[in-house]
């Protein structure tokens, strides 16, 4: 099983990034996929989640209207489009797959700074 995140980096406040997570080794289309983040000195928090077929989506309040989660079950990919980034969004972002048990990626660092 592998979850490999990409797309992180340094961006100025107000900018955008798109994170991708490539999944392999399990039946991707059967799993809820989520993005979590962990900022320095803080606990890991759920940012966004999307159901297996993509019909159900949830966001933490702090990113609503700015972030969009999506998935491509044909390509085993999940995305997080992040717009209007703020310094408070600085964190390591982790891809998660859940179906009674969890799979985690190693994370990608997003730094929002001028």
* N- to C-terminal distance: 37 Å
Q: Main beta sheet, described?
A: 7 strands, mixed
Strand fraction band?
over 45%
Oligomeric state of shown chains: single chain
Number of helices: 0
Spatial shape: globular
SSE topology string: EEEEEEEEEEE
Q: Structural class, from secondary structure content?
A: mainly beta
Mean pLDDT equals 97
* Annotation, overall tally of beta strands: 11
Round the Cα radius of gyration to an integer and report it: 13 Å
The low-confidence runs, each spanning 5 or more residues with pLDDT under 50, are none
Percentage of residues in helical conformation: under 10%
Structure description:
The chain is globular, with a radius of gyration of 13 Å. With 114 residues, it is an all-beta fold. Strands 2, 4, 5, 6, 9, 10 and 11 form a seven-stranded mixed β-sheet that branches. It has a four-stranded antiparallel β-sheet with strand order 1-3-8-7, with no helix packed on it. The chain has no helices and eleven strands. The model has no long low-confidence stretch (mean pLDDT 97).
């Amino acid at each position: 099983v592998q979850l490999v995140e990409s797309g992180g980096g340094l961006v100025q406040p107000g900018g955008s990034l798109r994170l991708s997570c490539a999944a392999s080794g399990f039946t991707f289309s059967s799993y809820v996929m989520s993005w979590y983040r962990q900022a320095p000195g803080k606990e890991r928090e759920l940012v966004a989640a999307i159901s297996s077929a993509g019909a159900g989506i949830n966001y933490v309040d702090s990113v609503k209207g700015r972030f969009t989660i999506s998935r491509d079950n044909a390509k085993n990919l999940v995305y997080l489009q992040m717009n209007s980034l703020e310094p408070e969004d600085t964190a390591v972002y982790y891809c998660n797959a859940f179906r009674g048990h969890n799979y985690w990626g190693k994370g990608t660092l997003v730094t929002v700074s001028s």
